[in-house]
Write a structure and sequence with these properties.
single chain; about 260 residues; mainly alpha; 11 helices; transmembrane; cell membrane
Amino acid sequence: MQAEYLLDNLKFISQGGAVSIAVAAILLSMSIGSWTLMVTKAIQGRCLKNSNMVFLTRFWQASSASPSSMATVMDEDLNKAENPFARLAAQGINAAEHHKRYTAQLLAKRLDAAAKDDGSSALQEHSRHDEFIAQALRRVISQEAMQLETGLTLLASVGSIAPFIGLFGTVWGIYHALGSIAVGGQATVDKVAGPVGEALIMTAFGLAVAIPAVLAYNALVRGNRLLMGEMETFAHDLHTYLTTGVPLAATMTAADLS
């Protein structure tokens, strides 16, 4: 009974002509697109959270153990593109190795050429080791931030535009209904209230599409902000590890023990 009643109330969409049908189709497509994105983002966020926790635990345990353990983590985890922490660690480690190898080659060339100084000027011509790693980490963080923002523009657009599209459908439905009543010559309250009330359903459709999109957008923005904060914290700890060779947790423990 409720389904039949709903179908009867939705007949005004076809009665409103091509404009009402187009408005309803736009709202329906916006709703499908936003809900698909919301479900996809929720699943990705849950999987990403679990993989991040596993990776961080394995990484810091390997960094405190033997080099073979770190090599194992490098082979198994750092090559997984779906983990932003793994990409950040891989880029930082590659930058550290690249800078070390390049600086060693430069110093070797200057020594072979019998340079007058001890190679300190060559080091001054390039970024310091810690600054080079920090720049690489910042670049990865910026790339991950842009990747996390994928799809948020759609949700923001749906949340801001859908109510106005529904309102336009309502105005058009009321105009079409009043025009039909004027042609029929029956302008009583019972003849006007029905079509006008049915036209207001378009506004409800617009709100039903916009409200979940706005809530999901706010939730995703907050989740991305928290994730970026965790990545910045990990980048700081990783930078300390790559420049000193000792994890920050181990340094703090040794300082507390002393």
